[in-house]
Amino acid sequence: MSSGFVNQENLFTSNFKQKNNLYKKIVQINQKLPEEITKPIKSKEFVLSLIGTLIFVIIFNFAAKLYLKENTTNRGYWLINKKWELLFKQKEPVDWLILGDSSCNQGVVPTIVNERLNTSSINLCTIGDMLSLDNSWMLEKYIQRVGVPKNILIVHVYDAWGRGINRPVFAQIPLNWGYWKQLEPKINFTKRETSQLFIERYIPLYSQNQSLSQLLKSPGDAFNRSQNLQLTENGFMIWEKPNPEYVEAQKKMHIDITRKYKFNLSSHNREALEHIAKLAEKHDFNVYLANSPIYEKLYENKDFKAYFGQLQDTLDGYAAKSDKVHYIREPITFPKEEMENADHLIYSAAKVYTNKLISQIESIQKADNSK
Prior knowledge:
Number of helices: 16
Strand order of the largest sheet: 2-1-3-4-6
C-alpha cells in the first residue's frame, strides 16, 4: 500500500513539474511576441476620425452618382434622366409631343411622324413603371417651360395601365425635391416612403449597388452596355437586336398573368388620364391614346385577348368623356423575329409601326373633320 502511494505521489510531483515548466516556456514565448502599442483614445481624435470617414463616404457616394448618371447599366433609370433632360432643352413647342413608356421609346419614330404629317415632334417616352403619371407631369412641365403642343400621342404597354407606384423609379426624376406635391396629380407619400425616396435618389452606394457591382466586376462589359444606350436628337432609341427566344418566353408569362386576373385601371393612372384630359380641354389640343406593339402569337391567345378587351373598353370609356381625347383601339402586331420582347420592336419594325399608327390617326382626324 505504502509503495503504491509513494509511486502515485512521485507521479503527481513529476506531472506538476512538467506542467510548470511548460507554463514557463509559454510565458517566455508570449513575452517575445510583438505587441500593438495603442494610445488612449481621446474624444477629439475619435470625432475627427469619424468625420473624416463620413466625408470620404459622402465624396465616394457623390462620385458614384455622377458616374452612374452617364454610365449606368440600368436602362430604365438612364431613360428617365435623359428624357427629362431633353424636355428641359426644348425652346419652342412641337406639333406632336410623344409620351409613354419604353415600348414607345423604341417604337414611335419622330422623323416618320414629321414626314407623314408635315410637322415637328419629339419622343419623351420613358418606362412603364412611371405610369401615366409621368405623362401628366411631363405635359404640365412642358406647357410651363416651352408652350402648348398641338397634339399629344401617348403609347403604353397593356399592363402598365394596371400598375401601382414603384418608388425607386420615381426617385430618378430630375426635378426639385418634393415635385410630387407640386405637379398634378399629386402623390401623398408617407414619411417612411419619403425617406426611401431620399435613399434611392441620393445614396446610390446603397440603392444602385447592383449596377456598381457590375461595373466593378466587369468594367469592360458594363461600359459597352452603357454605350449601347443612345438617343437620336428627337428622343428616339434605335434598337437593332431581335430576341425571338425571349419574346416567346414572355408570351407564356403574359398569358399566365391575364388568365389569372381581370383588368383594373390603377387609381394613379386614372387620375393622370383625367388631368391630361383637363389640360387638353383647357389648352385646346388633341390627345391620342394608343396601344403598344404586341407579339402576334400573344394577341391570338383567347385569355390574353379577353383581358386586353377589358383594357380597350376602359380606355374607350375615357375617350368618350372628352372630344379632345381619342383612343386607337386596335393593336398592331408583329412576329417575334422583329421584336426585342413581347412589346418592344427593333428599328425596322418600329418604322412599320409608326406608319400604321399615323394612318390610324389620320383616319380619326378625317372622321372628326367630317362631323
